[in-house]
């Protein structure tokens, strides 16, 4: 792919246009009294100036394209302290004590994944419990799963979460918006299946994490159910929308060139093809029960992405729309729907299920105040 142009490149490009301009000017000036000269001169003059502006805009937009490439594959890593930003090693929730078990796993590329498994300290009769794997979004980390743990643990559903490779404090250099993250999820599922204390497995992903869940679920029909919060339907379409939404300086005629440029740049840096991240195609071969959710005012991944996935999805499905944007806190009725969904597909032991529907933030922090 073409390199970002330096001043010399810009000078040569502009000089070329000026050369043609002056060539035609001096050549035609000898015939300036001809009736067609004035019209032809104006046409040449307009053409040269128009293309001069296009060249300048195109080269200046390469920097914008590089920024978008980095935004996709190397966003800022979430910074957090496991000692203070995750749920405690032991904590009380709805009258029961739970434990955070931190583990390190390796993916197929040898990257170390930092993970946490939230489990009850005492499990009645030692029964294996179902588990939901929470998959964070772009620039996210395993700290984002605390809310999911507070919601699901009282329903006797354990929660496993991880920093995907390239995210948080896990190894790896690049984020791939679901492509390599799918392999990270494979490592987690294999670990849980070999654990001996896990029965059925569900997936809950947000944004990039939702895409990861969908791509993995299409390959593993044993997954009991998936919650997909604001997934994108096609990465190329999303990139074109972001160019328009965030006013990236790309003239209309360069959009296709820009996408191809970014495609090659991402292939070179992160070793995946953005055209392969089409979840509509994946949805047509996925039969895992799915609950989709999307914020109505989401202008980052617009709601029509979930609509397109929902229409193509082959398995049992439902979709919920709610107020807010891409990063807004999700409403309580949405969490209640998720709780009901996972209770139905994971079938946790009934005798262990407590109150399922509560305000997760107030319940957890209320317990923390009492315990303190």
TrEMBL record:
InterPro entries: AB_hydrolase_1 (IPR000073), AB_hydrolase_fold (IPR029058), DNA-binding_regulatory (IPR052920). It comes from the Eukaryota. Residues 130-248 form the AB hydrolase-1 domain. The chain crosses the membrane at residues 12-28, 40-59. Keywords: Membrane, Transmembrane, Transmembrane helix. Pfam families: Abhydrolase_1. This is AB hydrolase-1 domain-containing protein.
């Amino acid at each position: 792919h073409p390199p970002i142009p330096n001043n010399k490149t810009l000078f040569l490009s502009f000089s070329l246009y000026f050369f043609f301009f002056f060539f035609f000017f001096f050549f035609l000036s000898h015939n300036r009294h001809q009736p067609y000269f004035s019209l032809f001169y104006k046409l040449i003059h307009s053409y040269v100036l128009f293309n001069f502006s296009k060249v300048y805009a195109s080269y200046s937009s390469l920097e914008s394209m590089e920024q978008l490439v980095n935004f996709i594959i190397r966003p800022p890593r979430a910074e957090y302290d496991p000692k203070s930003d995750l749920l405690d090693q032991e904590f009380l929730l709805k009258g029961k004590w739970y434990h955070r078990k931190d583990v390190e796993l390796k993916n197929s590329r040898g990257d170390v994944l930092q993970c946490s498994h939230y489990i009850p300290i005492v499990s009645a009769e030692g029964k294996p419990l179902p588990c939901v794997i929470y998959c964070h979004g772009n620039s996210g980390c395993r700290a984002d799963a605390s809310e999911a743990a507070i919601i699901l643990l009282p329903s006797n559903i354990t929660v496993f979460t991880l920093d995907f490779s390239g995210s948080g404090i896990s190894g790896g250099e690049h984020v791939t918006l679901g492509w390599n993250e799918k392999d990270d999820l494979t490592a987690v599922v294999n670990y849980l299946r070999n654990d001996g204390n896990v029965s059925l497995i569900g997936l809950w992903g947000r944004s990039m994490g939702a895409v990861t869940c969908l791509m993995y679920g299409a390959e593993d029909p044993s997954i009991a159910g998936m919650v997909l919060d604001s997934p994108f339907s096609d990465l190329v379409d999303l990139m074109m929308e972001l160019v328009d939404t965030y006013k990236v300086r790309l003239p209309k005629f360069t959009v296709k060139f820009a996408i191809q440029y970014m495609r090659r740049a991402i292939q070179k840096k992160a070793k995946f093809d953005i055209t392969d991240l089409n979840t509509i195609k994946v949805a047509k071969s996925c039969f895992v029960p799915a609950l989709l959710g999307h914020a109505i005012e989401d202008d980052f991944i617009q709601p029509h992405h979930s609509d397109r996935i929902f229409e193509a999805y082959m398995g049992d499905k439902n979709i919920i729309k709610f107020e807010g944007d891409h990063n807004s806190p999700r409403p309580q009725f949405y969490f209640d729907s998720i709780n009901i969904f996972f209770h139905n597909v994971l079938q946790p032991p009934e005798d262990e299920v407590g109150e399922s529907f509560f305000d997760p933030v107030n319940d957890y922090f209320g317990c923390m105040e009492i315990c303190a």
